[in-house]
């Protein structure tokens, strides 16, 4: 059973913990380039400001023991992809391997299907991110595709995997 956590909207009071946990190269290496490293207070303020504007919220903080230790977001698409949403997440390294992110993904999928007019939620982990692939599989996602060498991160090409779950 994972430690107790809560998914909730981001607040400016989360700035210090956001920067403390997000400023980690072990996290940034598996994120797209919009997630900077080093992760500064300025980055954190801009992120919290952006995440706080959404109604209903798309990006939530993962709170453990009163502290924001990670984030999870669902991003509805537009145009012909409008029945789809992309899922993204990260968790502070001290909390890895405790089942938190798997359960957070399950809760976010439920939230996504209840809140948005979508039928499919997908995630695109790097081929090298085995832990994230396991998280998605444990949360009921199915591998739909693997594209070789489509992502370019830190000077190297990486495989893009597409995992998805569909509205029951």
From TrEMBL:
Signal peptide: none annotated. Transmembrane segments: none annotated. It comes from the Bacteria. PROSITE patterns: GNAT. Pfam families: Acetyltransf_3. Residues 5-168 form the N-acetyltransferase domain. This is GNAT family N-acetyltransferase. It comes from Hymenobacter sublimis.
């Amino acid at each position: 059973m994972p430690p107790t956590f809560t998914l909730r909207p981001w607040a400016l009071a989360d700035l210090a913990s956001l920067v403390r946990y997000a400023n980690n190269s072990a996290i940034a290496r598996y994120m797209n380039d919009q997630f900077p490293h080093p992760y500064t207070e300025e980055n954190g303020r801009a992120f919290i400001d952006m995440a706080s504007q959404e109604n209903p919220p798309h990006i939530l903080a993962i709170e453990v023991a009163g502290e924001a230790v990670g984030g999870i977001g669902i991003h509805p698409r537009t145009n012909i992809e409008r029945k789809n949403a992309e899922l993204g997440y990260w968790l502070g390294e001290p909390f890895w391997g405790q089942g938190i992110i798997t359960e957070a993904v399950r809760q976010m999928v439920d939230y996504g299907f209840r809140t948005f007019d979508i039928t499919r939620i997908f995630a695109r982990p790097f081929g090298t991110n085995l832990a994230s692939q396991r998280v998605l599989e444990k949360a009921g996602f199915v591998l739909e595709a693997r594209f070789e060498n489509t992502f370019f991160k830190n000077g190297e090409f990486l495989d893009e995997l597409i995992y998805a779950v569909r509205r029951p």
